[in-house]
Amino acid sequence: MTQSVGKPLPFNDIRHLQAHQFLVDEAYLLDAQKYEAWLDTLTDDIRYLMPVRVTTALGAGFDTSPGMAHFDEDKYSLGRRVARFRTEHAWTEDPPSRLRHYITNVRTFAGEDDAHLVVESAELLFRSRGDVNEAALVSCGREDVLRQSGDGWKLARRIIMVDESVLRMQNLAVFL
To answer: Which domains does the chain carry?
Structure first.
């Protein structure tokens, strides 16, 4: 697993600017539900993980449930989810959700080599579906590893840490 090296990169560092641009472009693809194009921004060995958060006593030393995750996916499973959206069996997204991914607090760190960057960000997802359901919000922090490839940066790992232990969204048929 790639680790960050040193202090955050300055905001005017070209690597930080490229990482920030990657996240903004990714948010556009997800908002526009261009999921096949989004899959192209992932490495073949992607790990996409969203541990289950738990509320614990101060000093417990953990805030996730060991071995449990809402998502623990690879490129194959992400691809299957995307393919399912295009079938009549995707009732959780028929009608499709209206999505807005707000990305902020982006901090970029050098990776252990020049081909990797570690990127921290905060995300707020607004999701509206249908005419009668209430809109939902999901707030989370993300730690990403971006890997340089022949056609730019690609997402190699994402760890999503939601800010609540009980999710109030009707389902998790979304990408964060």
So the answer is: 14-162 (3.10.450.50)
